[in-house]
Design a protein that fits this description.
Elements lengths: L5 E4 L4 H6 L1 H10 L4 E5 L6 H11 L2 E6 L10 H11 L3 E4 L10 H19 L4 E5 L13 H7 L6 E3 L2 H6 L4 H7 L6 E4 L19 H11 L4 E4 L9 H12 L4
Parallel strand pairs: 1-2, 1-8, 2-3, 3-4, 4-5, 5-6, 7-8
Helix pairs in contact: 2-3
Length: 251
Amino acid sequence: MGAIPMACQLYSVHKSLAQDFEGTVRKVAAAGYTGAEGFGGLDRPVEQVKAIMEETGLQLIGWHSGINAFDPENIKKTIAYHKALGVKTLVVPALPAEMTCSAAAWHATAKRFREISRILADEGMVTGYHNHYTEFTPVDGEIPWDIIATETDESFILQIDNGNAMHGGADPLYYLKKYPGRARTFHMKPHSATKGFDVVPGEDDVPWAETVAELKRQGKTEWVIAEYETEALFPDVEGIRVCYEKLSKFF
């Protein structure tokens, strides 16, 4: 497999987007990204989003949608909005405590994910889940990430965020290998044991070369997605530009 295209998770620049949406998207494209992953609700007009994506040439490759977007009273609007944008991949980025507080809660969450997957499949769409750090800590003797992985089918994306996983003491490369082919999209976030997230790729503890090699070996990852939320070193737009500059070297 050749180079995997790189997208930007737009939450990385959410402060700048709130001030100047079009101008910020232009800067993301100018940094070198060819794709963007959206986030949040349905408040921004479809026409505005489509227009700036077409202008910049960025492909809208997915969306981080809160779990409530799939509630019965919301799911039709969620599907219609993203279909209008041409988005087929809706990933849940976080969960409320009641869905993660016990092994039983995680099993119920996996069941909910299966239900969402079936609904979206009928619409030609897919879903998945994006980890933070608690998914790799045993709960009632079970690893939540294993529950989600084993109780959803191959169409359900296990969107590993390597920085978040390492923050939780886990080895993301181990889980990438444990569930091969499930990371159709993969979040690349720098992390250091001593500096946390306040570090740039290549100066952190992430085994970037080995991770990229494994993604290419599996051959199923359609996009890698840079995410950079700290402003300790740079303002948000500059941080995501530096991320592209550093990460692109590994491809």
